[in-house]
Predict the structure.
Amino acid sequence: MELARHSFTAINTRPPTLFSPSKALFKPTLSLPHPAESHSRRLALAQTLQSETLKILEWGFLCKQLSPFTSTSMGFRATEEAAIPIGETLGESVKLLDQTAAAVYAAESGPWDFSGIEDVTPIIEASARAEMLTVGEICRVQRMLVVARTMAEKLEAAAVADGGGADSSNRYSPLLDILHECNYQSELANKIGFCIDCSLSIILDRASEDLEIIRSERKRNMEDLDFLLKEASNRVFRAGGIDKPLVTKRRARLCVGVRASHKYLLPEGIVLDVSGSGATYFMEPKEAVELNNMEVRLSNAERAEEMAILSLLTSEIAEARSQIKYLMQRFREIDLAFARAAYAREVNGRCPILSSCGSEHLDIEGMQHPLLLASQRRLLDEENGTSASRNHKGSLADFPVPIDIKVNRATRVVVISGPNTGGKTASMKTLGLASLMSKAGMYVPAKNLPRLPWFNLVLADIGDQQSLEQNLSTFSGHISRIRDILEVASMESLVLIDEIGSGTDPSEGVALSSSILNYLKDRVNLAIVTTHYADLTLLREKDARFENAAMEFSLETLKPTYRVLWGSTGDSNALNIAESIGFNLNIIERARQWVEKLKPEREQERRGLLYQSLMEEKNQLEAHKKKAKSLHDEIMDLHNEIQSEAEGIGTREKALMGKETRIVQQELKDVEKQINSVVVDFERQLSEVRYDEINSLIRKSESAIASILEAHQPTDSLYDNKPDYVSYTPKYGEQVLVKGLGNKLAKVVEAPGDDGTVLVQFGKVRVRVNNSDVRAIAGSRKSHATANSLQHLRRQASRSKEYQNLAETKDGEGLLFGPTVQTSKNTVDLRGMRVEEAALELDMAISSRGPHSVLFIIHGMGTGAVKERALEMLRNHPRVAKYEQESPLNYGCTVAYIRAIARVINRVLGSASIHRRSCLNKTKVHDDCRRAFGQSLAFKGDTVKRPICPFQIPRSKARDSRTLPSACCGTKTAISWGNIRTVPLAWSGNRFARFENSGRTIARIVCSGRTVRRTA
């Protein structure tokens, strides 16, 4: 079996070795330097201590915080199993941070779709075991390869498009470096796509020549068999052998149904099955036996050929399994980089600056414990039901207190003292997590850019190490772990010890702790220890490599503030805490007397040191306070200046708008005055001219009014609906207001194109609208620049005349219409109506539509009479700018675009009244007014009013009781009603009724008092 027409050669390349995925890179373990004298036990001990430290610092819970931000199953599993990569060297950690920075930058350009990147390892392993893969499994492999190649091409395209900046050439390079040596198996993916239609999960005929021949023969054979059986079934039916022709399949063979009493109609036919009642036999005619046999043979041959194709594709996937696995590992790194970027945005993280040990000091300002921060955010979300509560000012006190960690380059040991529950252990854990996060490429939730050395090992002894199984007391377990730490620690290690020397005699504990700390100052890069032993804080006076820190305690509230005071020593405040919780005052007072007797000199010395430290800090705070006050005064002055300027702008804008409004109103009065003058002249001349000169006089007056209107085109921006094309350009993902959707909120789902349109999503509906119909939300970054802009208003006013001319173009080219989204309000259904009824309904629908809107007309197909009448009306209707078929596949619906011809007349005439004496030609009046106002007009008194109903005519004008008066209607026998063709009218009693040819009354004009009133 050979594949037809296309020849493919599997790429038999081995996974690259220059940057092969190290197993340790995806495990939270760190290796030590490998000196020649290092012992295997020391390495194993270091790995054990590192793993235990990760558990103590709750690294696994921190990794799980990345899980919601992953996009692939591989990345999700890595975060859930705490298997995210941790750099083994300073270079690897910097590379991970660069990848996170590149992902942060890439995410700003829009979302990245990882759908299709899935873990196909089980499929690949099955192919390696020579297990034949199904069509679905092969398609999953192909989809993964195609999506991987597409994402790589998108990254490369983004890097090329971003090449304009000075440093842009390096923004995407960390992500591109991950995929540098990947083999996307394009030939294998193309081969699978050539052989299989994955959208339908079927093997295509072109997969092989044999398969194409077999399926072609099978098709011809099936056509012959189907024709033969249908003919036999029809013959049985005509002979009364079955109620209706029946061709079915039994025992994998096609046959016909026949009554048991008429099976003789198929002589020598084979009975394949019998119905449950026994009344119907399913028989295979003799002539169909060979064709059915051929169908079975061809079906088996087709199945065998398909199995051969699947087997070939399975073997090629097995050959490429190494490259595919390597590709999945690379995209897991890409996914984790984007997850770290999303986490950084979530916690407002800062990129840490790593340095080699000893070259830089440690400086972390305003860092919050990431686990406490996540816990508090989750609680607030549950209480308030929305993530917006994270910014609620009333809950700021519930968030973990930010701490500052500042250690000089020369410092090797920091001793933290302070009260119980004061935050010593939490601060130490925060530093440990900050070190691990920076090594793993994660941003740190801090106020400023954190600076810290790169530590090869983070070793911690925190908590009770008591073990009954190992016969270890609290002190034994504690000191045993410190022994192991001292054995593996190096000059690049960070050591964290909680309550050093505790669990034994205080005097011996102090002595042992002093010895351990003096040993650590020469063996590690940095050691952080907590203690209640005041003697350990005196080590700073003897050696500058020691530093003290204290946890702040408020003597007013008798509660800790959880802030770290660097360079200070702290008291345990055990007696104050005991007093605050209601302990016996007599016992507390006696304890204070014992303290004074046991340590008088030392206590006074400590108080002196503490007082001196507090005074120094007080002086610093006073200086900062003065500086802050000075800055505050400058900011307030600037604020007042800006506010004053803003108020001035608003006042000037209102004055200018008022002036422009008065100018326009005066111009409108002048126009109305000129038109009234023309009307007065017309009325005066009307009584002097002969009857045959009336039409000429009317045309002359109309021409004069038209000249007046043309000479006074509106210029006020208040009447200009033309959008500002250059004021705002939406971006992908923004929330905007769309004019055509009733100024509803919508989301931009596709960047604006060259054609001046943008794709927005409103609910579940996506629609493409003009850029000019899109507005920024008030207060947003885009709208802020154009708000309250006088120049913007003047630019709109200057273009109103241009827009007016545009709105009155005959063909409607260039008109601005809303998005063509069909709703019940903009749809008229004419199906099932007679032609005249449909015409009346359509005319009312067009009249009711606003300017620059659309109308969907459902006229159906049928005989085509309604459609022809509707299209004729649309062609001739003055309010229809243009019309078009709704879609190439829907011939029963037409979309009409409604213009606003009467906007000038509406503005000038106001109440829209026309003197009757100036309009003796009622048909002409009717057409002109309908063109002006989009609806029929009615006489009332001496004027023609806009409303359709009531339609009143003075009865005294009716000279003939059988017809409408000619003075009120251009003809004595008929009247033009709306946009419907003229129909006869006749008196019926006291009703003047209008009939169709069928005689069915569709409207009446009822005689009531001195008027003839229209009724439905």
Observations:
- Residues 806 and 815 are 7 Å apart (CA to CA).
- The chain has six domains: 24-205+317-352, 209-296, 376-598, 619-711, 726-798, 919-1016.
